[in-house]
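2 proteins. here.
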Amino acid sequence: MTLFPRRLRFVTALVMSVWLTLLYVAPAAAGLAPSRVSGVTAIDSPRAADVIAVQRALENRIVAQKLRDYGVSPDEVQIKLASMSDQDVHTLASATKGLPAGGDAVGALIGVAILVLLVIVIIKLLNKDIVVK
């Protein structure tokens, strides 16, 4: 006794053969997608570009903490930034290009510590002695 009737097996095999044949014969097309403005970060003037650079610098944790230490709130910073002249905003944006892109070095220190501990564990598992002179 078969699970599927002979006619159903034949039709299924025929459909799969035709489908796979057409799938492999179908032409493939590739090309470059045209670029377009996304509208999310439309920069229409040099001042807008400078303001975005300054705002990104203000998002840095170190800069935000220093401003809080001096008693300046984020709202006051935005008001002052809006009232600055184009030349002052450009000068400030030029000065922010030297700021670090990432956060502090805590992540790097943790990574080095984990690496050192991993090396020590591997050496101990191999029954080797660690001698520091």
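next one coming up
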Amino acid sequence: MIVIQDIHKSFGDKLVLNGISAQFEAGKTSLIIGTSGSGKTVLMKSMIGLFEIDQGAVLYDGVNFSEMNFYERKNIRTKVGMLFQGSALFDSLTVEENIRFPLDMFTDMTNKEKKDRVDFCLDRVNMKGINKLFPSEISGGMQKRVGIARAIVQNPQYLFCDEPNSGLDPQTSILIDTLIKEITTEYNITTIINTHDMNSVMEIGDYILYLHQGHKHWEGSNVDIIKSDNRELNDFIFASSFLKEIKKAAQKKS
């Protein structure tokens, strides 16, 4: 579980996060949503220490991460998996070498143990047998799955995903969402996803945190969001006429 308490973050005179508090539970997919400039990317980067917060606390299973120095944070960071927006694979490394990279950096595993772990993770994301291919030789969706395999190769307790469906077609996006949800539940991971994808919100949003102009403007589940009367949230979520019709239908049933 990750708990954030009264998070404030400014850049110069601009206040970007204004008193954000939330709780992200293990085994659930938690989504941070909001318009561009709402503060969601800054919040995620603050939670993993890429930005230092001005006020508040970030707690990893009760341990105050925000009070630790660089070396003290290393133990928690070894428990964190990251899925970057563009997959962030190394072009000069094979798929196997990309996935193995965190094991080379942070573990004392033998070469055989590393190979076995890489093979297991590739199989888990339904990408068995592509070890020797380079990122340029596989599709964007396949690269994203390799990114997920690398993110889970160290058995993380916490998984951060930055726009995991960016640049993907709708069908591939559904596959990625399903995979992230399965892995989160199967391994009881605390998963936090920064996203603009409303399909993700509706399909896998166990917990949704909506930021608006640096404030926590709403929180709830993908079931709650259909019934919300928060005007700014509704304008953001139901921007398309199709989603507006879904909301109307759901309101009639209730």
